[in-house]
Amino acid sequence: MKRQPRAAFRRWRAHRPFWGGLLLTLGGGEILLTMMASLNVIVHIGMVGVAGYLLPAVMVLCGLLTLFSPAQRLFYSIVGALATLGSWITSNMGGFFLGLLLGLIGSSLVFGWLPDQEPRRRRLRRDRTNGGEGPAGGSGGDPVGDGPAGEGPAGGEPEGDPVGGPAAPQPATS
Asked: Do the beta carbons of residue 59 and residue 33 sit within 8 Å?
């Protein structure tokens, strides 16, 4: 009975950029904690003091929204990356570099996540059964399978214009 919640969480996690959203949230949280720390290095003056709290809060919000609304992940990752870069100036060098790195890595992972990609284990299993060749079991060079890659059916010259029109007449040379 213990396996059922774990399997449900694993399914939930597989359909969203989990690690990127988590790192973005942790980066914002770390910067917020360094802003609230009672260190003598920290200076809070005017609007920079407000921005020092606002930008890490935006990072945390973008990370959480990425986890719970992955359809908008590109927007959240760009806003999160901009907020992370802004925290360099407003929040003690981005939480003494740690929050800055977590935020940038997290937003990059969110930006690069693809929703319709099959799980890694399934891809590895499929590649092993195909003998390490491409996804269809071919050599991966020619998607049509009627000649060497990039050439026409006879394996010689290309057959027409690459845009789809007829081949242009070639000038005669002597």
From this structure: no
Give the number of other CB atoms < 10 A from CB of residue 34.
Answer: 22
Q: How far apart are CA 60 and CA 32, in angstroms?
A: 9
- The residue type found at 160 is G
Contacts for 138 with CB less than 8 Å, ≥ 6 apart: 145
Report residue 162 CA to chain centroid gap.
32
Whole-number Cα distances in Å, 122 to 104, 127, 128, 131, 142: 29, 9, 10, 14, 24
pTM for the structure as a whole: 0.66
Q: Over 90: is that where the pLDDT of 155 sits?
A: no
Side chain identity at residue 26, one-letter code:
L
